[in-house]
Amino acid sequence: AMKRTSVKSTRIDEWAFAEWLVRNIKVKKRTGSGRKESVPYSFEGYEPYLGIANVLHEYPENWILKGTQIGYSTLMIGWNLFLAAWKGLDCGYALPDKVMIKPFMKTRFTEEQINQSPELAEMYRMHESDMYYSTGENYLYFLGANVLSEGMSRPMEQVSLDEVTIINAEQIEMMEDRLG
Fold first, then answer.
1. Which are the contacts of 51, defined by CB distance < 8 A and separation ≥ 6?
2. 138: which residues sit within 8 A by CB, 6+ positions away?
3. Alpha-carbon span 83 to 123, nearest angstrom
4. So what's the pLDDT on residue 144?
5. pLDDT at residue number 1
6. Which residue has the higher pLDDT, 154 or 8?
7. Per-residue pLDDT at 2 exceeds 50
8. Highest mean pLDDT, choosing among 143-147, 155-159, 174-178
9. The pTM is what?
10. Can you tell me the distance from the alpha carbon of 163 to that of 76, in angstroms, rounded to the nearest whole number?
11. Can you give the C-alpha Rg of the chain in angstroms?
């Protein structure tokens, strides 16, 4: 699967995303007892991601090609939360369709995980019926990319496309054209 992130904004000046990610994002991991527990995000075992996290803001477009599930979606969700709350951007996280979004949000990124970070819990509010988080005046939308109205009706300055190989190329182009 391919991951793509596009940002059209010059407002990203200071950068501390990697530190922010470790401080604010919790992930579910199997512990020694065999149970899954929420633990702080760590670059341990994912050292290449630290390099990516440190330079992600330097490029207006990033492509990650991967052959297996390697946890990169968590980094992308963190990137979107960071940009919405700390950089004042409206963001979109798109999977091919809405059917894929609900299980993704319930298994990979949950309200429980948001609430475990005092900074995020204070700032973010989930609007499950419409599948978005709000933080003050900014939003993180979860989109079904192959649905025309999804990208058209959301003002976004950044979009992350997950599972790009099964998203309609015309939809990708339309979403990028609409970036503010």
1. none
2. 84, 85, 88, 89, 90, 91
3. 13
4. 83
5. 38
6. 154
7. no
8. 155-159
9. 0.81
10. 12
11. 15
Residue type, 11: R
pLDDT at position 5: 54
CA distance 158 to 178: 10
| DSSP letter string, 153-176 | TS-BSEEEEESGGGS-HHHHHHHH
CA distance 107 to 156: 25
Helices 17-24 and 47-55, axial angle in degrees (round to 10): 130
What is the rounded CA–CA span in Å between residue 22 and residue 173?
A: 33
Q: Which of 125, 21, 140, 136 is nearest to 78 (CA)?
A: 21
Please, what is the angle between helix 47-55 and helix 72-86, to 10°? Answer: 30
